[in-house]
Every structure is written in structure tokens, then in C-alpha cells.
Automatic annotation (TrEMBL):
Record keyword GTP-binding present: no
Taxonomic path: Eukaryota, Metazoa, Ecdysozoa, Arthropoda, Hexapoda
Name of this chain's protein: Uncharacterized protein LOC117574517 isoform X1
Species assigned in the record: Drosophila albomicans
GO biological process, alphabetically ordered: sensory perception of smell
Stored InterPro entries: PBP/GOBP, PBP_GOBP_sf
Compartments where found: Secreted
Family: Belongs to the PBP/GOBP family.
Underlying gene: LOC117574517
Amino acid sequence: MRVLLMLAACLSLVVQLEGSALLSGEERSIRKCLNNYGGLNAANAERLDRYTQWSESYEEVPCFTQCYLREMFDFYHEEAGFDAIRIKKHFGEAVYEACSERLKLGDLRQSSCEHAYAGFHCIVSLENDPFILIENMQNATRAAKSAMKECLQQVDQVEWNRISDYARFPVTEPIPCFTRCFISRLELFDERTHRWRVPAMRRALGVPALGAHVAGCAQRRGRNPCATMYQQFTCFVLAV
């Protein structure tokens, strides 16, 4: 979603700079893609803002998505379609595979503009999916990802979207006891001795970093065992 969420704000800036020759790469791309639809104006700012609502079959500015993806990111080419390597690098292998049917060329009923819009609609709709976020964790092993997914399935579905909050490392765990669940499944903490299996944690999750100062992490305490484990694990993750 972040790729298109910034369009309206950026367009507002471009309108202010319309008389200036000093345009950034994105501003230049937006200007080019709107050239056939009235250029940079308030009406088009509103139309771009509506992209965040993602109509299933109606694109606010015809062919804008195809143009923007090509000009700004080189994600799409009219004859070849989506660039698989670039899409996987930017959004992750899991998103690409989940949307693969929408990203493939072959539907003769679709124009290249419709294909670009439909494919990118799928990508954006999955970018913040909690299971996709887990799947895209680069340093986690397959076993670690599976443990996290299993633990997530044990909580109420209304809490699933809170998985993205972990990236901000809040003081209170976004999903209570989620960390303790996957740590226990991976056997990274000895409940009998209350000691962390740091080498195993580094192999499974890629943390803490080699040489990081983690001596005080095990001393952290929360209001209950789940909160304590979350606080200690967060310390390992952030240690330098």
C-alpha cells in the first residue's frame, strides 16, 4: 500500500512546484502519467487519493497504474508484463506467488492497463497480510515461520493485523503471549533453568546479532511471564 498511499501527498507538492524545473523523480513520473488527463490539478489529486480505496475493476485514471509502475519503479512493461525479479525483491516471494495468476500475461480480454491495475491491486491487498509479513521475514527459518503462523492461528482473527505493530517494538506486546508461543514451540527458552538458548535463537531467527551486547536482556521483567518473555526477546532483537 505504501507505493500508492504517497501519491496524493506527492501530487499536492507537485502542484505547488508546477512552475519549477527542479522536480524529483517521482514528481516527474506523476507529471508524465497524468499528461493525457488534465495534468496536475486538484481534480486529479482527488482521483489519486481514491486509489487507496482500490475499486475492483475501475481505475480512476485510465492506465495510470501501468505508467506509474513503469516510470517510477520499472515494475511493468507493456509487452512483457510484470517484472518478476523486481516484484519479488520489493514485495517478497510470498506476495508474488500468491498473486502469480493475476500477474501472468495471457488473458486476451485484458488490456495491458487493466492487467497492470489488476495485478498491482492483488499485490497491495496482500502486502500487509499477517501471514505474508511472517513469510517475508528474511532471517527466520522455515520452522520459525511455521511456528509463528501456528501461534497466530490460535488467537482471535481480529488481532491478526496487529502483527505489523511488532516492527515498532512497542513496550506492550501487540498480541498478548504471541512471542512466548513461538519461542516455546521453537524451544528457544529453557523453562526449567529460565535461560535463553541464544545460539539456537540466532540460527532460527537471526537474532541477536553476533557481538551484540545482550548481558542485560535476561534481567528484564514484565507484569507476567508472557510480558517478560516479550521484553527479553525484544531486547535481543534490538541489541547492538
